[in-house]
Amino acid sequence: MYHYPRRVENYTTPFLWMVGVILFVSLWTIASVAGFLWVVISATGLELVLRALGARRR
Fold it and tell me: Which residue has the higher pLDDT, 37 or 1?
């Protein structure tokens, strides 16, 4: 006698929501880190330029 398995609950919608949340958080993290590095690189470059201009004026 063969028993068919019962229907399982559909987890497609929660799965898609969590994929969206994880994707959003990961892209937000990448953008934050890249933005932070861009600010550090820009600040260092400006400091070097201003020091060079200051040394040239002396």
Answer: 37
